[in-house]
Amino acid sequence: MEKNGNGHNGNYTAAQFIEAIPDSGGIISTIAKRVGCAWNTARKYIDDHPTVQQAYQDERNKVGDMLETTALSIAKNGDGTMLRFFLSTVWKDRGYVIKEERDIRGTLDMVQMTPEQWRAENAKQAKASADMLDDFEDVDE
User: Fold this and answer.
1) Could you give the dihedral angle defined by the CA atoms of residues 126, 132, 134 and 140, in that order, rounded to the nearest 10 degrees?
2) Range of 121's domain?
3) Which of 16, 32, 82, 109 is positioned for an S-S bond with 74, CB 3.0–4.6 A?
4) Same domain, 31 and 84
């Protein structure tokens, strides 16, 4: 069989990928480099082989735990932004969520329009939106 561009004939084993996963951070390009294959090949082995998929998920969970530990440490040191983020994501099931409330009381007026009136109103609203966008772009400059 003819070898491909990376010097392999395309015959890889699940064991090669499982051995390449630890301490990769779950980064597919790192796994592929360790095995000596293309990124797409590594992704395919992860997707198609349950044992490789489990090793990959274990590595990603390990990284997730490390990141959560770091975020918790930063929050414990008084970083209010990290504390708010940590509470609103990890502890949202305890009620630490940002809720948006809207007051929708009032009346709704139904208006009957002819197709011509509807087109005219639609054009007027489109022009108002375009003008608002122009004003916004002027602020940016």
Assistant:
1) -150
2) 111-141
3) 82
4) yes
Same domain, 84 and 128: no
53 and 47 in contact (C-beta within 8 Å)? yes
Residue 50 lies in a domain: yes
Residue 113 is encoded by which pair of tokens?
């329009």
Distinct helix (H) and strand (E) counts, the chain: 6, 0
- Residues 45-92 have pLDDT tens digits of 999 999 999 999 999 999 989 988 888 888 888 888 888 888 888 878
User: Alpha-carbon distance 8 to 45, whole Å?
Assistant: 15
Task: Write the DSSP symbol of residue 36.
Answer: T
Please, are residues 12 and 48 in contact by the beta-carbon 8 Å criterion? no
* Tokens matching residue 13: 């084993």
